[in-house]
Specification:
This protein is of the alpha/beta class. The protein has 18 helices and 18 strands. It folds into 4 domains: 6-134, 3-Layer(aba) Sandwich (Rossmann fold); 147-315, 3-Layer(aba) Sandwich (Rossmann fold), CATH 3.40.50; 318-386, Helicase, Ruva Protein, domain 3; 401-459, Orthogonal Bundle (Arc Repressor Mutant, subunit A). It has a 5-stranded parallel beta sheet with strand order 2-1-3-4-5, with helices on both faces. Strands 9-12-15-8-16 form a 5-stranded parallel beta sheet.
């Protein structure tokens, strides 16, 4: 190892911890000791620690509570728990429930400890390498699912990188379609909570009578239709991240209850007499001016200050046109996979046209235009004719087919339609979604036509 990894030994018996530290030091590690969990937290905060070897039973703060505290702070080093004979069941629960790296029974077998310690340190090194790579990619305009070349979006990626490791509530602002949910998912994916759930709830999509049940859950019989107990989003996302999308649309009465949960970190299901403690990272998003909402009395000022701990504004696409080629290329790859297409690129004239659009719907509108183009193109480069008719002067030439529909005198309309569908399906390589889009009909209509003509092959 070019730089010695640091291992912290935690045991209330000085002789035990000293002997263990001396042995671990002989294996090439830098060591430190602590007499209990409280001292261990102080040592970990003072110096980078790659692994912790801790006794389970200690005064002041035991091994289990130490794990709880490390988990609460996030991004903690792996912990190996040592347990006396007879406490194996407790140790297994500690590994399963609190995420200890492993446990070993006392007296510790030297060879076992060395192997487990090597694995724990290797895991920590891997996490550190991943974090360094994320920071480097962030500087190059790539972070999680987000890519950027413009200074405005590079600034956004930098803010996300700074906010993600913390527990701070994040408020995402920006126009509709600017990618606020993608930003929220990126915050989660580069945070210490990445292994836990990410849930999103759209506050504008739920009626006032249901939003509290969705957020906080309910007990059986709490209201008409509550036929069973149901956990809310706060409980389901415990340990992870909860996105409150369109927070500006939340009813004022619900805002007061949300504020209390954010302050106390406890929720009470509708109809329940008791509260449940939750550990959730909150990300809120809005396309509205919450300041104007406060003035109008539709948004609580105290909730605004509670949510606006770390604000990140997503700029509209028209203010970062240099990002459009990166976003468009990434979308084509994703849409190829989704629709089983083989589009190779976006032609230069189409890309320039995309760059010059105002995009009032932002990235969401760009995605919709490209999805249609990918379906119509099928394979090869996207050309002007694959764009919507009249799209800023895009050509309305028909998409070339792989065959020719031969119309003969006396051919019925049904026969001509059947031949047109056959040729289009051939061009779309039997992809019905793409064929239906090319024909200008729904997939259901195409299915019914094939069934009518006795050509439903189940594909």
């Amino acid at each position: 190892m070019s730089e010695a990894a640091r291992v912290l030994i935690v045991d209330d018996d000085p002789a035990q911890s000293s002997a263990l530290a001396q042995m671990v030091g002989l294996w090439g590690y830098e060591t430190g000791t602590a007499a209990n969990g409280r001292e261990a937290l102080d040592r970990i905060s003072e110096a980078e620690t790659h692994a912790v070897v801790s006794d389970l039973n200690m005064p002041v703060m035991d091994g289990r509570r130490l794990l709880e505290e490390l988990h609460r702070h996030g991004n903690s080093p792996p912990v190996i728990i040592l347990t006396a004979f007879g406490n194996t069941e407790t140790a297994v629960e500690t590994v399963r429930d609190l995420g200890a790296f492993w446990f070993l029974e006392k007296p510790v077998k030297t060879k076992e400890l060395r192997v487990i310690l090597e694995r724990a340190v290797a895991q920590r090194r891997l996490v550190e390498h991943s974090e360094r790579l994320e920071r480097q990619l962030s500087g190059q305009g790539v972070l999680g699912r987000m890519i950027a070349q413009s200074p405005a979006m590079r600034s956004v990626l930098s803010l996300i990188q700074q906010a993600a490791p913390t527990k701070a509530t994040v408020l995402l602002t920006g126009e509709t379609g600017t990618g606020k949910e993608v930003a929220a998912r990126t915050i989660h994916e580069v945070s210490p909570r990445r292994a836990k759930p990410f849930l999103a709830i759209n506050c504008a999509a739920l009626p006032e009578t249901l939003i509290e049940s969705e957020l906080f859950g309910h007990e059986k019989g709490a209201f008409t239709g509550a036929v069973e107990r149901r956990s809310g989003c706060f409980e389901l996302a415990s340990g992870g991240t909860l996105l409150l999308d369109e927070i500006g649309e939340m009813p004022v009465p619900t805002q007061g209850k949300l504020l209390r949960v954010l302050e106390d970190r406890r929720v009470r299901r509708l109809g329940s007499p008791r509260e449940v403690e939750v550990d959730v990272r909150i990300v809120a998003a809005t396309n509205r001016d919450l300041g104007a909402g406060i003035q109008a009395g539709t948004f609580r000022e105290d909730l605004y200050f509670r949510l606006n701990v770390f604000e990140i504004h997503l700029p509209p696409l028209r203010e970062r046109r240099e990002d459009i080629p990166l976003i468009a290329t990434a979308l084509v790859g994703e849409l190829n996979h989704r629709h089983d297409c083989r589009v190779t690129e976006i032609s230069p004239d189409v890309m320039e046209l995309l760059r010059m659009q105002a995009w009032p719907g932002n990235a969401r509108e760009l995605r919709n235009v490209l999805e249609r183009a990918v379906i119509l193109c099928g394979e090869g480069p996207i050309q002007m004719e694959h764009l919507p008719a009249g799209f800023a002067g895009a050509s309305r030439r028909p998409v070339p087919a792989m065959g020719t529909v031969v119309l003969a005198p006396g051919m019925t309309v049904e026969e001509a339609e059947r031949e047109l569908i056959r040729i289009t399906l051939e061009h779309a390589r039997r992809n019905r979604t793409r064929a239906a889009a090319m024909l200008g009909i729904s997939v259901k209509t195409l299915f019914n036509k094939l069934k009518q003509y006795g050509e439903d092959d189940g594909g």
